């Protein structure tokens, strides 16, 4: 006898609570993640690497930023598997604690002057732990908010995860502004460590918020009726392999974020351009502030007209505008940099950034949603993370060939456009039926064991 399906309505208040937990948790976790990016561009070349060769030191420092992205696919395999077996909530709590711990350790690391080459090795280990944590964070938070959300507002509610990411990036930037303004000797001795030490508070606050959240109705029903799959990865690759590849390609749009946040900051403050460190941090801060408002607006629009058109606006528009933004930096005109930075990252990129949590998550069924989102996004994000390293290489020996970097960034926006054009529109499909077309499921089909 089949077990009757449990009702899929979320308990009163849970959709808002899930969205709030996703926002705050992502903000706190990505605060940790992005302070590393600022430090990698501004501080670590002098603290952890050989100062006698500044260009190589900068390249190596930016490469450590990409290391976390290389670790993400590994973390996605592990955390995605368990997220679809034990639930979204446990993974959300675990990733937050791991990120807080690894980030705090970075603030405690000895420098190259103190322990030699051991210093960058320890830095890379901590960065790998950050990457593993980030691999499960967004996928679990997105799955949690999507599965709790009302069917006609999934875009809006899932966008809170990415609004939280922007909030964390804004917080990281605001923390680094007074740090970057410290005298050079204080900045390089103890000042840079303070933002990393603050991650302990991050972990405690995030844990308190997330541990009270209920598991999602769709996952609870899946576990109570068909049961969770034994090997989510096997089911994912058998039934959803095309959508996994589509998400990998679409996730390359994150290259816009990494180039904007890390390489452009390093280039603008280099000797070839000479813009002020604090002023450039304010560009990022204001762009992220605008993004906090733009992301839910774009997501709400996607609930009305669909995910695909909104994502296409963000992906194609960002590819074009990043050329203009990097050109503005090359001119050294701060007003021009400020305006184009806000329009590019705060407004247009937010279209893709705000809609992808629902766009990707709706491609998969409940039984493999966390695995599908985690693996697909993290492979794409891994490539996007190393885009910073590639940019540093193609920028030439002096690091000032902004045109080559601009074209490289624009080219990375082409696969996301193709992925969106070939994707199905899902914004009107009921939550419990998402992913059915991909593997020919129907509401009454017998469960597949795996």
Automatic annotation (TrEMBL):
It is found in: Cell membrane. Its main location: membrane. Residues 430-444 have a biased composition (Basic and acidic residues). InterPro entries: MFS (IPR011701), MFS_dom (IPR020846), MFS_trans_sf (IPR036259). The chain crosses the membrane at residues 21-44, 56-79, 91-112, 190-209, 247-268, 280-298, 310-328, 334-352, 373-396, 402-423. Coiled coil: none annotated. It is a multi-pass membrane protein. It comes from the Bacteria. It holds the Pfam family MFS_1. Keywords: Cell membrane, Membrane, Transmembrane, Transmembrane helix, Transport. Residues 18-428 form the Major facilitator superfamily (MFS) profile domain. Residues 430-450 are annotated as: Disordered. This is MHS family MFS transporter.
């Amino acid at each position: 006898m089949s077990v009757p399906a449990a009702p899929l309505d979320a308990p009163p208040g849970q959709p808002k609570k899930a969205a709030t937990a996703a926002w705050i948790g992502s903000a706190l976790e990505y605060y940790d993640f992005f302070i590393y990016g600022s430090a990698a561009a501004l501080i670590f070349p002098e603290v952890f690497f050989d100062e006698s060769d500044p260009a190589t030191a900068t390249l190596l420092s930016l490469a450590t930023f990409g290391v976390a992205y290389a670790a993400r696919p590994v973390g996605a395999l592990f955390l995605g598997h368990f997220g679809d077996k034990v639930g979204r909530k446990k993974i959300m709590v675990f990733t937050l604690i791991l990120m807080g711990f690894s980030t705090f350790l970075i603030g405690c690391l000895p420098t190259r002057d103190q322990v030699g080459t051991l210093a960058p090795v320890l830095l890379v280990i901590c960065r790998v732990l950050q990457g593993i944590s980030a691999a499960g964070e967004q996928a679990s938070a997105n799955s949690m908010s999507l599965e709790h959300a009302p069917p006609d507002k999934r875009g809006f509610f899932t966008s809170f995860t990415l609004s939280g990411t922007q909030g964390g990036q804004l917080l990281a930037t605001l923390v680094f502004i007074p740090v970057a303004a410290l005298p050079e000797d204080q900045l390089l001795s103890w000042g840079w460590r303070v933002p990393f030490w603050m991650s302990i508070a991050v972990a405690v606050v995030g844990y308190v918020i997330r541990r009270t959240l209920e598991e999602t109705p769709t996952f609870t029903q899946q576990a109570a009726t068909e049961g969770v799959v034994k090997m989510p990865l096997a089911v994912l690759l058998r039934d959803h392999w095309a959508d996994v590849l589509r998400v990998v390609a679409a996730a390359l749009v994150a290259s816009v974020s990494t180039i904007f946040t890390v390489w452009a900051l390093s280039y603008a403050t280099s000797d070839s351009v000479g813009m002020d460190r604090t002023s450039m941090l304010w560009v990022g801060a204001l762009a992220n502030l605008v993004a906090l408002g733009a992301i839910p607006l774009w997501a709400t629009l996607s609930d009305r007209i669909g995910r695909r058109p909104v994502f296409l606006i963000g992906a194609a528009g960002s590819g074009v505008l990043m050329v203009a933004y990097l050109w503005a930096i090359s001119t050294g005109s701060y007003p021009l940099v400020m305006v184009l930075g806000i329009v590019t990252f705060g407004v247009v990129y937010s279209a893709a950034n705000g809609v992808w949590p629902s766009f990707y998550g709706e491609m998969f069924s409940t039984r493999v949603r966390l695995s599908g989102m985690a693996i697909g996004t993290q492979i794409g994000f891994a490539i996007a993370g190393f885009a910073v390293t590639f940019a540093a290489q193609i920028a030439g020996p002096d690091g000032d060939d902004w045109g080559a970097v601009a074209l490289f960034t624009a080219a990375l926006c082409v696969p996301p456009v193709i992925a969106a054009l070939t994707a199905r529109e899902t914004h009107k499909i009921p939550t419990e039926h998402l992913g059915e077309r991909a593997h020919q499921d129907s509401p009454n089909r017998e469960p597949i064991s795996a």
